Amino acid sequence: MKSADGLTLQAFTLEDVLNTLPDFHNIPGKIEAEDYSFQSGVELENTTDVGGGQNIGYLDVNDYLDYNVFVAVNGIYQIEYRTASQQAGALDLQILDSLDNVISTVHSPSFSATGGWQNWATNTFNVQLLEGLYKIRLKITQAPFNMNWMDFSLMSNTKEIKNDNPIRMFPNPSRGRLKLEGNLDNTQNVRIAIYNTLGQQVLSKTVENTAQIQEQFDVSHLPNGHYIVTTTLGNGKQFSKQLVIMK
Ligand SMILES: [Ca+2]
Ligand SMILES: [Ca+2]
To answer: Candidates 3.40.50.150, 3.40.50.300, 3.30.559.70, 2.60.120.260; correct CATH number of 25-157?
Structure first.
């Protein structure tokens, strides 16, 4: 291989890039607004709020920010949004699928004016969240306002949100092999897919016309880390479980 000036270049090799940032945010937990994985139309500025750091600003309607989250348990969560603004603001908190399609809107909080761009106030709401590893989006619906952070705390475990996944997955964490087993109500096609925290599908298999799942996967080629395993049944029901690969 030669470069434009005629020097011979070394062949490229693909190497793992070490990322020092966590690839997801734990819920319950506090998420700094500036720690998004992707944003559109947003700028950062230093904040004079308690604790310092940065806040997001220059928000306009339809600007958005995405965050990868791992929700530890089904439950009712209190969300505190730390905002400052000259006028009222609002957003939709959305849940995205692996292709960034909006699956649902968790809630649509609005925030009162605080009298200044660095006059900070905490706005508190309760929402229901399902456990799992997925992406949330803050979609701005009324602007401008500034946000410093959001803090999720677990109010109660909600047993009503049943996890009726008929398929067991083990061992988890996995050292390189993974088994899925379970009995279904009737014969159907079952699709099993594994996604990484970027939402990219890294493995999939469809088992046709079966009432019993007994599958073994070799996941030893996947890098250590967090994944989500999605099982889609013939009736469209989908179950997601977090998988940790640790070799
Ligand atoms: Ca903007
Ligand atoms: Ca912040």
So the answer is: 2.60.120.260
